[in-house]
Specification:
The chain folds into two domains: 28-97 and 135-248 and 368-379, Alkaline Phosphatase, subunit A, CATH 3.40.720; 251-358, Gyrase A, domain 2 (2-Layer Sandwich), CATH 3.30.1360.180. It has 380 residues and is an alpha/beta fold. Helix content is 32%, strand content 22%. The strands form five sheets. The protein has a seven-stranded mixed β-sheet. A four-stranded antiparallel β-sheet has the order 11-12-14-13. A hairpin with a 4-residue loop joins strand 3 and strand 4. It has helices spanning 34-38, 55-60, 66-70, 86-95, 99-102, 129-132, 138-141, 158-163, 177-188, 200-208, 213-232, 262-265, 288-300, 309-314, 327-330, 354-358, 368-371; strands spanning 45-50, 75-79, 108-111, 116-119, 146-151, 168-172, 193-198, 238-242, 248-249, 255-257, 268-274, 277-282, 304-308, 336-340, 345-347, 361-362, 372-379. The protein is globular. It is built from 17 helices and 17 strands. One of its GO terms (molecular function) is hydrolase activity.
Length: 380
């Protein structure tokens, strides 16, 4: 039998940041919203989530973002959670909890009850979101009136029912986001909170990559949107801007497809996560998980960091080392997690839609470009 990968990863790859909770650390994204809900100051607050706008990307494109550049002195860099992906980050933001506690462990998370990956954005008719993630969100723990401003399709979605419980909902169109925020501020009153999720940059990045004119145009337009908000929102409104993750560009030449490695593919019963943070549950059978971990470690080499389940739990990647894992989360934890290094990706594309293979911009791993996000606090 192949010996299991032990709990220590030595050396930790230099091109990857340390695990978010390593050595007692706590990723700053968890505390971006919490103080606005638990101990708010008198007055109105607006939290804007810039999907996909990592701190490194923002620093590299200052010329395109005059509004954010002007506010650099009020902007900090904070860590997001791992995997650095929207669903996991949004639930951590809205609960203040580490992924290992809330149980949303990636874009696709293993659903052990049904034996398949569950999409954490759209869910499944057989899965009740409130049962999938029963921990109370910040919106349920506050007396503050709060409104989620988002496209109409987000109303009642799986992610909204997981992350935004306790929030009211107000739909917006693509061209009236500032007016929708103004309406929401009027609705919540003089001491309310409004949340706006802006996903333009993320969509452009996935389709065209961050080194593309469409991505740069999207970033400039989002900066313009923020500038308009700062001019048009009521005086005294506090504005908070952050992001869920950053992004890197990949290519077919930097992609490993497990379909081309059937001896490893057959060992994976469930393929969850995403191409920068691939989460695999092994087939049943003694030694299968260890064989899968070792096989992937040998296949990927310096192209990825491969963690066994034991290493994953010991590394403080998903939560503080040694924390109690809720029973409902325990079987969602993958037997093997593969974190891409550089701009490498790995997936089993035979189990993915064609759109997954076509993505240029990707995220989920621990590179600086993916894991650092901005946190801006200012007032109009």
């Amino acid at each position: 039998m192949t010996a299991p990968l032990g709990p220590k990863i030595a050396p930790w790859p230099e091109d990857l940041l340390s695990a978010p909770f390593a050595d007692g650390a706590r990723p700053g994204l968890l505390d971006a919203l919490e103080p606005l809900m638990s101990a708010p100051e008198p007055g109105r607050d607006v939290l804007v989530l810039l999907d996909g706008v990592g701190a490194d990307l923002l620093a590299e494109h200052r010329a395109l973002t005059p509004t954010l550049r002007r506010l650099e002195g009020e902007t900090a860099r904070v860590r997001t959670v791992a995997p650095s992906t929207t669903a996991t980050a949004m639930v951590s933001l809205h609960t203040g909890l580490p992924p290992l506690q809330h149980g949303v462990l990636g874009y696709l998370t293993h659903d052990p009850e049904h034996g398949q990956p569950l999409n954490q954005l759209i869910g499944d008719p057989d899965v009740v979101p409130e049962q999938w993630m029963p921990e109370p969100g910040l919106g349920e723990r506050t007396r503050r009136r709060a409104v989620q401003v988002a496209p109409g399709k987000h109303a009642g979605s799986h992610l909204s029912r997981v992350a935004y419980r306790g929030w009211e909902f107000l739909a917006h169109g693509r061209g009236d986001r500032v007016e929708a925020v103004r309406t929401a501020l009027h609705r919540v009153g003089p001491d309310g909170l409004v949340h706006l999720h802006v996903d333009d940059v993320d969509h452009a990045g996935h389709r065209f990559g961050v080194d593309s004119d469409p991505w740069r145009t999207a970033l400039a337009e989002v900066d313009s949107l923020l500038g308009t908000m700062l001019r048009r929102l009521p005086a005294g409104t506090r504005i908070h801007v952050t992001a869920d993750h950053g992004m890197v560009d990949t290519s077919p030449e930097l992609t490993v497809d497990l379909t081309e490695h059937p001896s490893l593919q057959r060992l994976a019963a469930v393929v969850a996560g995403e191409a920068r943070a691939l989460a695999l549950t092994a087939v049943s059978g003694q030694g299968a998980a260890e064989e899968l971990a070792h096989g992937l470690d040998e296949l990927m080499g310096e192209r990825a960091l491969v963690l066994s389940r034991q290493q994953l739990l010991g590394s403080a990647l998903l939560g503080p080392a040694g924390m109690a894992v809720p029973a409902r989360v325990r079987d969602r934890i993958p037997d093997v997690l593969v974190l891409g290094r550089g701009c490498w990706t790995v997936d089993d594309f035979s189990r993915r839609p064609e759109s997954a293979r076509q993505m240029v911009g990707v995220h989920g791993s621990l590179t600086s470009a993916e894991a650092w996000v901005p946190l801006l606090r200012t007032q109009v």
